[in-house]
Design brief:
Length: 595
């Protein structure tokens, strides 16, 4: 393929889209082998016939919190899921958690209408809301879709065990009863080519421990003896945890809009569990061994990097690997409203640093909002934590890194003397406290790594100033022969993830430069949302989840190959250490055709 200068033509983009689709189907694991079966999965549809203004959380006085937005979101997701299923043609669809909002006859009728339109085998189990009108009512209405709290299905030799989760407050007795049924069911269905657990106990630890109770010991025994591959759970957000038995949370059809569909592909040697946002975009995929015929992943405790998937990826020989994190937003707790929003920021950053040091990447990039109110105390705390990184650290500024006393009070910036920023402007503290890192306190810069070019840019004003645009154009032209070109900034660009660089203030011009110079990827943060991916004119725009605003965050691990870029979503949880990640693969615009 040509690597000459020029923009992408439509035929080339069509070819690249086909390449992405083929790569996501194969995931580089075993070529064109056909899967044993393919199962679409989502959770918590909350289908209801209620008017939007009557959708509320239950409460003693009947005036619970409004959930009116569930009406339009659930309807839109039903349409999206049905369209995706028609195109993907899976062997079955599994809907976990609450199918309906109230369990009423009217809600069940609405849900049945949606399920019938899918025109393929559907399996459901009742969620907590479905049984509000009685367990028997739901079971009778959805009997053709399983409908019972516990049952199993053999789908082309793959055993699907369906069990409504008893909940996090169920206690050891309820878990014990459920595990006893699970064990008996698996005993009567030996010989499966793969075993997938849908639902099941939530309270049992994520790996065996000496302190486990009887129910937990029996659970881990059945997982080992019957070689269950994965546990799929209902939820509102997508989560990934565990290692010996990965726990994968199916996104909600109503609570969020990030993922259109989950898709499980069971192969003889492995399982691939995909998250699909759009059928014309790459998929985020967890690939694990099928323990019926292959060894489970190595124990993370015995892995040199504490992450067996990372070690496996390194064995494939990338040019280099690096980490992208964003929005640690360290807060000094001097303003009550801010302190309430950022109670976990320091601990989340410490957890991320400890994990990243075990991975030993070639370098780390953090794309802005390093601190919250831009105070010296926050910068000192940031440096205390991030100076412990063993790898070189490259930084770019975000809007919170430039807050000063002239900002709107809603930014929660405390009054400070003018000399805190001085004549150097709002980035004075950023320059002062980041000058000892690899990026040297600069607001925009470039560097090279193993034939690849990286540009760090400054979008803290949600604009790209003319001086910077001229510099970016020159740098991209100078690095035309690089294997890949990455650009790192804080704000997204127009048409990607929202709250973006203004179109008329450099946003559209920057997009045009990316297309002209075939930039491989643009890495951003700012949005405090789940990680998202969008390929625009050959450039992968990647939004990384933040390390603030809660007890769960994420960072991205990148493995860079000559012909592709592998981005890995690595969740970080405050209360436990997790060892797995999901991968998304982007082919390089520089090794595919262009004019």
């Amino acid at each position: 393929m040509s690597r000459s200068k020029g923009s992408w033509n439509p035929a080339c983009l069509a070819l690249l889209a086909a390449t992405w689709y083929a790569a996501s189907c194969d995931a580089g694991q075993g070529g064109s082998q056909d899967p044993l079966c393919r199962i679409a999965v989502m959770s918590n549809a909350y289908v209801t016939a209620l008017p939007a203004d009557e959708i509320r959380e239950p409460s003693a006085n009947g005036q619970g919190k409004s959930r009116s937005w569930l009406k339009s979101r659930s309807a839109a997701m039903q349409t999206a899921v049905a369209a995706a299923i028609r195109q993907l043609k899976p062997d079955a669809f599994v809907l976990l958690g609450s199918v309906t909002w109230t369990g009423s006859d009217a809600d069940c009728t609405e849900a049945e209408r949606f399920l019938k339109e899918l025109n393929l085998p559907v399996y459901v189990t009742p969620g907590t809301r479905d049984v509000s009108a009685g367990q028997d009512n739901f079971q009778q209405r959805f009997s053709e879709y399983g409908g019972k709290p516990r049952y199993s299905v053999n789908l082309r030799g793959v055993h699907l065990q369906m069990a409504a989760s008893p909940g996090t407050s169920s206690g050891d007795k309820a878990d014990g009863e459920l595990v006893a049924w699970m064990t008996e069911d698996l005993m009567h269905n030996r010989g499966a080519r793969a075993v997938i657990l849908f639902g099941g106990p939530r309270t049992i630890g994520q790996r065996p421990a000496d302190s486990d109770g009887e129910a937990a010991r029996r659970f881990w025994k059945l997982v080992d003896e019957h070689r269950a591959a994965i546990q799929i759970l209902p939820g509102h957000d997508h989560l990934l945890s565990g290692d010996l038995l990965p726990r994968w949370t199916a996104p909600s059809m109503a609570w969020q809009e990030q993922w259109t569909l989950g898709l499980i592909e069971a192969y003889t040697e492995r399982l691939e569990v995909h998250l699909i946002a759009s059928l014309d975009q790459p998929r985020q995929t967890l690939t694990i061994p099928n323990p019926i015929v292959a060894p489970r992943l190595a124990s993370a405790d015995q892995d040199p990097h504490g992450n067996p998937l990372y070690t496996k990826d390194l064995s494939e020989g990338p040019l280099f690997s690096f980490v992208h994190a964003t929005d640690p937003q360290i807060d000094d707790a001097t303003v009550a409203a801010a302190a309430a929003r950022y109670p976990h920021d320091e601990e989340m950053s410490k957890s991320a640093v400890a994990e990243i040091n075990r991975l030993k990447p070639d370098f780390v990039a953090i794309t802005g909002d390093l601190v919250n109110k831009n105070t010296p105390l926050e910068w000192e705390t940031f440096n205390t934590i991030y100076s412990r990184l063993d790898a070189p650290l490259y930084l770019t500024p975000g809007n919170h890194d430039a807050i000063n006393e002239e900002h709107d009070p809603r930014t929660l910036a405390p009054p400070r003397a003018t000399e805190a920023t001085g004549h150097e402007g709002p980035l004075a503290l950023y320059r002062k406290f980041t000058q000892n890192y690899a990026s040297g306190g600069r607001r925009f810069y470039s560097f090279r790594r193993n034939g690849c070019a990286f540009l760090g840019i400054d979008t803290h004003t949600q604009a790209i100033d003319p001086e910077q645009l001229e510099w970016i154009n020159e740098e991209l032209a100078r690095n035309q022969g690089a294997t890949h070109v990455f650009v790192m900034g804080h704000h997204p660009l127009p048409g990607t993830f929202g709250d973006e660089v203004a179109r008329e203030q450099g946003g559209d011009e920057l997009l045009a430069l990316f297309k002209r110079h075939r930039v491989s990827a643009y890495l951003v943060g700012h949005r405090h949302r789940a990680s998202r991916y969008l390929v625009v004119d050959g450039t992968a725009h990647v939004h990384c989840e933040d390390l603030a605003w809660g007890e769960r965050g994420a960072y991205h691990v990148y493995h860079v190959f000559p012909d592709r870029i592998v981005c890995c979503w690595k969740p970080v949880y405050l209360k436990q250490e997790e060892r797995l990640y999901e991968r998304i693969e982007f082919p390089s615009p520089r090794t595919h055709c262009s004019n």
